[in-house]
Amino acid sequence: MRSLASRLLCVLALALLPAWSATASPYPENTENWAVNSAWIKELPQDEQTIVLVTLALELSTHADQTLLPAVKDPAGMRWVLKVSGHGNHMLMDIATRSDTLRAIFRDKADAYLNVINGRMSADAFSQTMDAINTRIDVATTNITAQDIARVRAAYRTRIAETETTLIAYAKLRSS
Q1: Separation between Cα atoms, residue 91 and residue 161, nearest integer Å
Q2: Whole-model pTM?
Q3: CA spacing 20 to 30 A to 14: which of 59, 77, 128, 147?
């Protein structure tokens, strides 16, 4: 089920961006600070890495929906929000070292954002793609229990929070 913010994002993307196209590279080079800050995630066991990456993806999405999206006033602002989300998902793809499935999910999300920015995907197609990706995430995390999630989030609470802040900051910086 899509959230109201997700639907709003799709409608705004279609309404505000038909003539816009991204000209900069969609995937800027990694920066040393992001590489250093996120390196700990690459070494986690697969299930723990999956939990941390999905947590970071959810926080990135929540930040975009609750903080960035309400501040959009024009097509350029909408494009920037989409770029932040796309760059953030690409950054997560780079650190998904234990699961080809999760890596592909983040790549597909980043590509969907790029396609909607460039006008190669309608808002409806974007929404359908995101729904399909969310289903793939559900399948990829089927064997992870609520207790596993609580344990991993508690064990890495501070590191997750620091990495989340860095992820959002660098995704914003790369989108500017």
Answers
A1: 16
A2: 0.81
A3: 59
